[in-house]
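(Deposited chain)
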Amino acid sequence: LVAPGAQVGGDQGITSTTVGNQYAVLTGTSMATPAVSGAIALLVEDYRSRYNGQLPRPSTVKALLLHTAADSDDATPWFNKGPDFASGYGRVQIKDAVDSLRAGGFLVGQVAHGGTVTYALPVPPDATQVKVTLAWDDAAGAENAAVALVNDLDLVVVDPAGQQYWPWTLDPVNPSAPALRSRADRLNVVEQVLAEGALAAGTWLVRVVGHNVPVGGPQKFSLAYTPASIPESPILELER
């Protein structure tokens, strides 16, 4: 995802602390990076206050941030609908991430090699969007591996009529091409399904499939979802 590294008007930059107990105005990734770090600190603080001081999994933080990021789609050839190589899943929106946390719009689970975990996602008649984001903390890949992904999970979302919705995928060989939603993802530790428009009301099925889990299984994962209507997991389930 991306975050502001400058501002419009004024001194154009972002004011932050620097060495010697001083303040400085800078621009660029040196300012965007601490902005995201501060946002994550707020999210972790809120999580700990709600769950008896426990720390969230890194995948939970990632899922919430990417799930609630604002898409950077515009008229430029490098910002496209969905994820892109220029902006990832979009601009960080920490308020929306905290709101999603407080609404119970996430869960933590685990899946073994060849296994499937299924969740029921109730969708009301007036819903205009179903969005599910899967993230997991993968095992370390081998040095210089052609594909860094080790444990490969799949996100499968099916509506009440049986229609399957695919996650976003990008083509590394053609980085300017828009993301597609037509096949499984075999490269990344984040998968996101987005369904929009006239949606079927009722119970949608969200499945996490252990497509290939050769190391350290079962693989723990985090899910973020909108609407936030999957029954909340017990606290022990969150920390499995």
User: Anything to note?
Assistant: The mean pLDDT is 92. Residues 135 and 189 are 6 Å apart (CA to CA). The longest strand covers residues 202-212. The helical segments are 29-50, 58-68, 94-102, 235-238.
